[in-house]
Amino acid sequence: MTCTLILTRHAKSAWDSTAPSDHARPLTSRGRHAATALGDWLRRQGHVPDQVISSPSQRTRETYERMQLSAPAVFVERLYQAHANIIFQVLKEAERPCTMILGHNPSVGSFAMEMTRNAPDHPRFYNYPTGSTLILEFDIPKWSKLERGTGKLVDFVVPGELEAA
């Protein structure tokens, strides 16, 4: 059996927002467009999650909404400003074979590097810009058996590539 991880950093957020807190910062217009493009790309590629586990921040919620995924989402406070170890623990608790984790940097980028057996040959992988999405497959029967460094690279994309296409 195989478990598939879709690891996505939220789309571009507004630093100049009048939001009362970092948690409440919304997406920019560019971020909203990128999130829609990412959802379209996931569907075209057949990378459709069975469940989404997301940080509860405004920008991750908006990213999820704009992706228009049919998978239900749970918003987990532990993923907001989480260390990569927290993401690992949250994923080990996942119940569906194709799971999306939607979160923030630097933890999402660090987690991506920890989980992949072979990093993508992509110039943006190591700084994991907003909207970056990594697809990894794990030869495990369920997420509780997850180990670091065992993910087989399936795909990696950044929104700028989708917008140019």
UniProtKB/TrEMBL annotation:
Family annotation (CDD domains): HP_PGM_like (cd07067)
Pfam family, one: His_Phos_1
InterPro entries: His_Pase_superF_clade-1, His_PPase_superfam
Signal peptide: none
UniProt-recorded name of the protein: Phosphoglycerate mutase
Species annotation: Parasedimentitalea denitrificans
